[in-house]
Amino acid sequence: MTVVRTCAGLLATAGLICAVATCGAETSATSAREEVTWEEPAAYSYTLTSSEGERSLIGRFRVTVRDGKVTEAVGLDDSARRFLARTPKQVPTLGALLGELEQARSDDADIAEAEYAADGHPERIFLDRDENAVDDEARYVVESYEPA
């Protein structure tokens, strides 16, 4: 019996140590995300692939931004062209995508992750506000980013 209690005590202690270590790792990962800074230029272009979830912004787009606003968006596939035919002014800037990421984090989304290029602009953003909900995800892939 004594051996069982000792093993149980060791397991409980090991579990506590793992929990504390995990908690510390989680904090530093959050800090690393917050340290990424990028100042959105007034003019740039990029290709956006927006996928996942039941949303209207689905497809591949070539986007031009001037003075902080989308001035041109071209649908590169059928889904994007349909979206632009219905709502041509709803394609986001990179700043708007980062705003959506920050809002998801503020709302305690289950997943709100981003990957950044060396210069700090976002390359991938994945959002899942509720892991138990179906089709509430959003995935954004940014390619061919070119500051003007």
Can you characterise this structure?
With 148 residues, the protein is an alpha+beta fold. Helices cover 38% and strands 32% of the residues. The protein is built from three helices and six strands, in the order αβββααβββ. A six-stranded antiparallel β-sheet has the order 3-2-1-6-5-4, with helices on one face. Strand 1 and strand 2 form a beta hairpin. 15% of the residues are buried. Mean pLDDT is 82; it is low at 1-33.
What topology does this entry show?
Layout: H1 2-35, E1 44-51, E2 59-66, E3 69-75, H2 78-86, H3 94-106, E4 111-116, E5 122-128, E6 137-147
Antiparallel strand pairs: 1-2, 1-6, 2-3, 4-5, 5-6
Please give the count of helices. Answer: 3
How far apart are the termini? 73 Å
Q: Please, what is the average pLDDT? A: 82
Instruction: Give the uncertain stretches in residue-range form.
Output: 1-33
Largest sheet: 6 strands, antiparallel
Class based on secondary structure composition and strand pairing: alpha+beta
- Sketch the topology as an H/E string, one letter per element: HEEEHHEEE
Widest sheet, order of strands: 3-2-1-6-5-4
Helix content: 25-40%
State the shape: globular
Strand content: 25-35%
- Cα Rg: 21 Å
Question: How many beta-strand elements?
Answer: 6
